[in-house]
Design goal:
There is one protein chain. The protein is mainly α. The protein has one domain. It is built from eight helices and two strands. The protein has a two-stranded antiparallel ribbon with strand order 1-2. Helix 3 runs antiparallel to helix 8 and helix 7 runs antiparallel to helix 8. The longest helix is centred in the C-terminal third of the chain and has 43 residues. The two termini are 40 Å apart.
């Protein structure tokens, strides 16, 4: 069998552009983008998903790969893949912000460890929230839902020079405010309780300075904070589930599903 150069390039385009969109998603998707997961595993997963999805996808545009238009198509596929995973990264950042706020208020801000997802130092309380939210994300098959949405996006947002617009990027930037709003909402019950406890210690120290209330209050604040985290963990995960649903709705909007 003889194949022309155009046929080879067309077959390559039908595979390479979906592969770029899917592999870009694996770079930014939570849980699977951690540094402890080898890049080979993510590459193989993206390759297998692409091999299964390519026969079901519409024909690629009649654009030469090695051209300016082909370069712009590649940029669009990278932007789409990264944006879908980045939105969910912002959802997980809500848990980090909430956990940091609680840790600082209960005096555990100094107890930190390296976050495997970002490689930066975060309080241990935030790590507990991140691990819990990761289990929820995997438990509801959020990763499978994101992969399904990305594959469906090839029909609603096909491979082309035109993809995400500036309005889509602005909507992602505006939605990033959820990181702080939902993070404060998540930590608010614990913060409010610890605030009243610290006010009580302040009043007691003012009334009886010789009691050294703050020396006793530090371990009490830590113990009370741990109890409050244990009591409120269910409501914390409920807030995470709501933000996760909002994140998926934003992805639906971006991918025009």
């Amino acid at each position: 069998m003889n194949f022309t150069e155009q046929e080879i390039l067309s077959a390559l385009a039908a595979f390479i552009w979906p592969f770029i969109r899917i592999s870009s998603m694996f770079i930014s998707i939570p849980v699977f983008s951690v540094k402890s997961l080898p890049a080979k595993i993510r590459l193989i997963a993206a390759l297998l998903i692409t091999l299964v999805a390519v026969p079901l996808l519409p024909a690629p545009p009649n654009v030469a790969i090695f051209s300016y238009e082909g370069f712009m198509v590649t940029v669009q596929q990278i932007a789409i893949g990264l944006s879908t995973g980045f939105i969910l990264q912002m959802v997980f950042a809500v848990m980090v912000v909430g956990g940091q706020s609680i840790a600082f208020s209960m005096g555990l801000g100094f107890a930190s460890m390296v976050d495997p997802a970002t490689g930066i130092q975060v309080p241990v309380v935030a790590q507990v929230f991140v691990v819990s939210s990761s289990l929820v994300f995997l438990g509801v098959n959020g990763h499978l839902l994101l992969i399904e949405m990305l594959v469906e996006s090839f029909h609603t947002l096909p491979v082309a020079v035109v993809g995400l617009s500036l309005d889509n990027l602005w909507s992602i930037i505006i939605w990033s405010s959820q990181i702080f709003a939902a993070g404060v909402l998540l930590a608010l019950p614990v913060l409010a309780t610890l605030l009243f406890v610290n006010i009580s210690f302040g009043v007691a120290a003012r009334a009886a300075p010789q009691l050294q209330i703050f020396g006793v209050g530090f371990p009490i604040t830590i113990m009370l904070g741990m109890v409050l985290i244990w009591v409120s963990i269910s409501s914390t995960l409920d807030v995470f589930s709501d933000v996760l649903s909002d994140g998926f709705r934003l992805i639906n909007k971006l991918l025009k599903l």
